[in-house]
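FAQ: What does the model actually see?

It sees only this:
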Amino acid sequence: MAERGASALSLPDDWPAHPDPILALNRMGSFDWDLDTGLFHMDAQALEIFDFRPEEYDGRAASLALRIPQDESRRIDALVSRSIKEGSENYSAYFRIRRRDGTLRWTHTHGYIRRDDIGRPNRIVGIVRDATEELQQVADGEARAAHDDARRRQINVVQVTTAALAHARTVQDVIDVLKDTEGISHLGATSLVMGLVEAGRIRLIAEGPEGSFVPGTRVTRIDEPYPMSEVVRTLSPRFIESAQEFAAGYPVLWPHLTGLDITAAAYLPLIVQARPIGAMGLLYSDRNGFTDEERGILVALGSSIAQSLQRAMFYEQEKDIAEGLQQAMLPRTIPSVPGADVAVRYRAAAIGGAKGRDIGGDWYDLIPLPGDRVGAVIGDVQGHDTHAAAVMGQLRIVLRAYAAEGHPPATVMARASVFLHELDTDRFATCLYAEVDLVTGVVQVVRAGHIDPLLRAPDGGCRRMPVEGGLPLGLSAEFGSLDYPVGTLELDPGHTLLLCTDGLVEQPGVDLDDGMRTLAALVTDGPQDVRELADVLIDEADERGGDDDVALLVLRRRGLDAPQSGGRLQQQVAPGDPEALAEARHLIRAAVRAWGAADRADEVELVADELITNALMHTEGAAIVTLRVLGAADRRLRVEVEDSSSALPRRREAGVAGVSGRGLMLVDLLADGWGVEARGGGKCVWCEFDVPVRRP
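And it is asked to produce this:
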């Protein structure tokens, strides 16, 4: 050991002496703690103080647990954490270490907290020294040492309890901290009771141990003769130092406590901003009286508990408001979609495991669109608070509005990004919008910084569908990039499309690609029914926990109950191109005959020709004509003509010699139904013809 101590060091000949030899001669060691890597370097003297041989110590802070008792370690950790949080430059503390022979030695440390250019703590340098002799000299004797040790233990309990309360988010969290092994048992109490002030009464929220509840005290008035009522009325603690004093002071309560063998009690008002929010009682079975110092420690503990309770109550109030807001922002019901089975699920984030639920900005939506199409939306606004939920609600509404106006998917996403940017919020959002044509199975997908969708085949095989994406909503407008590529998928009957937020995929320490593969495997093994599958996935997220919320939308295409032998015909007709118009007429007549509606071919061709001609004459740009079959036994043939003008068609009187103005009259006369729909920057004029299946 000598070679590692000051005796093995000699002062250099130059003057002044270097600091390392000076520290060693004064029996002080130095350390350098890298907070980013966890490396904890100690010089030779520090190693000796901790009773480590150089080859025994691996240079990591966690390894000091071999020498530092658990209670001391928690106290030092709490001190360092508090110093860092409060922005202190240094800290100083005494603590004990256990040497290899089992003896305890007092050690003193003084650390200097270094921070980087942005103020983040990244390094602590300091000294440690053996302080056993110093403390022994200060002590006046064995009694004084015992008193100091008891005092330190109580302070340690307050510090440990206060540190634990700092992480309490709910009222139940506060109760759990006080009732576990780090709480009342270290205070030496046999039983704990706590109540909150509500509307002039005290409502009991905690009592322990189990079975110690006193009948009639669940809710009591503040003016009743109970100790908790008294401390709330007077705002002063009440220390009861004997069983006789308890029996005399509270004759109504005492008979119910005789079985607990109570010898003393401390009742503390829980006060915040000079207002009582509750009261707490600690009952002891092995104590007689309280010193002034013990009373001060308990009062300080009561103040810490009151602050934690107030924070927890505010948190629960905010959480209730946020949850109500989020539920109001999410769709109340998902519409029934002919030709598809749909299931949606939402799971709020679980912060701290089972300690409670948080709020977030994840959302889903299903938007019915004309022409047997449906828009599926999944998105995630940054953050877990009321603001995130409010932004989510606004985004959901504008996305639905843009989609319902008939904008193509890329335009829907671009406009939503501009909207979020103009909200002047610091939040961005990821989103995926899929427009599904349930007749053809064609899915147009646009992705804004969101994770890819998954596609499951009828045989259960599931794979990730990579889709080229753009920037998250709100950022694309900021950086001047509103380009959202559109990917195309084929959703055959029996195939299932799964959209989710990253809370279902991401896990601490797990690569995103690995998480997607894990999710795909889970979907592969999951049930065929979309609702049962959604339940399995959300249950898995619940079991795993995590600090992010989850939104999930599962859509399985059944296929419309109609023969699709002809599929769908679509043709673009450019202005000034008579051949294109003639070709469109020919294709329409051929398709109608092929689909078994030859008896109405003339009518369909005439109406389609009229609509195409009107689009070319009264608008600028090409016309797009789409022809398809809808329905099953009662089939309908639908003609759609899209153009780039938002001006609606209107009836005109042609007059006796007029050559125009009869177009809409023809449509109204020949078709079984017609109408106009907004389609993004233009419109779609449609008409339908009944073409029932001919029975043999």
